[in-house]
Amino acid sequence: MTRLTVRPGIPYRLGEGDAAVALALKEVSDDPPVATVGVVRNRRTVEHELRLGDHVELAGLAWTVVRVEASPRPRVDLEAAT
Amino acid sequence: MSYTGFDVERLRTFAVHLRRTGSSVGDLRRDVAAVLDDAERALRGRPATSSPALRRTQGFLPWGLPSSLAWSLPEVAGSIERRCDHLEACRVLFEDGHHVHAHLAFEDAPPPDATTVQDALDALRGLADLDAGINGNRDDLRRIADLLAGLTAAELDLFLDDASADDLRAFGDAVADTSDSGWSPFDHNGLPVGERIALASTLLSLAGPTHLDDVASAFPWMTPGFDTTDVFLDGANPQTGEDASGITYGVPEGPLFADGVSSTDVYQGRLGDCWFIASLAASTQMDPDLIARNIRENPNGTISVRLWDRDGTERWVTMTRELPLADDGTPLGAHGDGELWPAYYEKAFALLYEGDKGGAPDGKDGDPLYDRSEQGTYGALEWDWTEKAPPYVSGNESRGLDVSFEDVQSAFDSGSPVIVASSDDKDDVPEHLQAGYFGRHVYYVTEITDDHVLLANPWGDDYEPLRLTPAEFEAHFDSPQAIDLGGTP
């Protein structure tokens, strides 16, 4: 199991070669817990809204959203089976 | 030990020949020029040669070959003679039982002096019995520091042969301890940050291969910690504090430079230091030679980066090649597109930066784990303001600009790199900008015309620059700073 904590202000590069993407946190709210992330592939950024339990494919891996918090400090945690 | 391969007499003879050849170059140049002049007269003024090198021999101010040999050959000869003097002094010391590492024996430096080395050893050993007096120990430490900084590489090698690890570590701890005893207003202890980093850097850059680790161990604060960074804290088990981040110090694979220097080589890693990375990338874009002038690899493998300290004093910060690495072995922080120079720039900045006043990501204000003033760590680089990094990068204060498109355009067009922060809230950002817009982030200007500005993201070339109209720029960005590279030598 791989766990990734995504914080604001930091780019997260995942995967290699054609599968590579970069992920960054844009916004988080607590009520309801929803996060907006920007996923960059081939220099184009696409926004995704993530909620608890959502599944998202990034860099060839299936990730599950396991934590979304705006306070006390914004974060989104993803887990992938490796 | 023997000095096989160095025949000093033959080398000295060679130097004499070089000097003699250099002094006869003027005759050679005049002869060549005379032949060309005669030929041109015979050709009724038409050029006698199409070779630029030969044409340069004519005229009142000849330059290039062979004229340049008149000063370059004596320079080489001088270097050979100084190296021979140095080698012979090492041989005398060897016969007296002192051993200079072979890599350092043929240096172009003054001959090593055993008395100088002994003075430095005595001063170091005297540290334990030092009565610093009411004015603290700074003046005494400076005296020792001056002795150490004055050693040549060979003398430092001799010094480190005899200095004990405990004495070195005690000295390293003393210079880093600037705490005040509290009972004297004149109490000055340790050495200021820029000064002690300059001293340690000098020693790290000169140490021979057998003693480099000794110097690094004496000054552990020359390895900036990462255990207060968000990425490390996120990886630590909150109950046990045990690290699960996978971050370790190690030597990454890859060259310092590949394919020249470009701002698109700069990628922010997993540290929240966009305010520094944007300043670095913006300066690189405006003056790529700045980087080539400000980084050097030393013969012992260490790397030196030139920055300016809090007081504006130029400092060459020398580091071992170790960097904090993620669990896949790649640099945790800044990096390039297969090259490492941004990572060492960031490490040097982590060592020298003194402007951290605390500050924390949203929701952690006042939390002592995140919101604390630090110096000499990667944690000190996370979350700061646009005006803080430029003086360290360029040696000059940056100029705060109004949030005015015209002012930014004027600054950029006059040769100043410009960085700018995005506003907090992206909700009001036009739809076409939203995907590439990240709030509370620092970008840098890469292009500006009368009708648009391009802002690059210091996260790297993966991210397409934002293209904004003047109105969009003024509505959604603030805190622009014009970096002053003007006086940067």
UniProtKB/TrEMBL annotation, chain A:
| Pfam families xref list | DUF6406
* UniProt-listed InterPro entries: DUF6406
Please report the name of this protein according to its UniProt entry.
Uncharacterized protein
Q: What is the lineage of its organism?
A: Bacteria, Bacillati, Actinomycetota, Actinomycetes, Micrococcales
From TrEMBL, chain B:
The lineage's top-level taxon is Bacteria
The Gene Ontology biological process terms listed for this entry are:
proteolysis
Which residues are in the Calpain catalytic domain? 252-461
Extract the GO molecular function terms from the UniProt entry. Answer: calcium-dependent cysteine-type endopeptidase activity
InterPro entries documented for this protein: Calpain_cysteine_protease, Papain-like_cys_pep_sf, Pept_cys_AS, Peptidase_C2_calpain_cat
Task: Give the active-site positions.
Answer: 274, 441, 457
Q: Which UniProt keywords apply?
A: Hydrolase, Protease, Thiol protease
Q: Which PANTHER family match?
A: CALPAIN, CALPAIN-5
Instruction: State the family it belongs to.
Output: Belongs to the peptidase C2 family.
Q: What is this protein called?
A: Calpain catalytic domain-containing protein
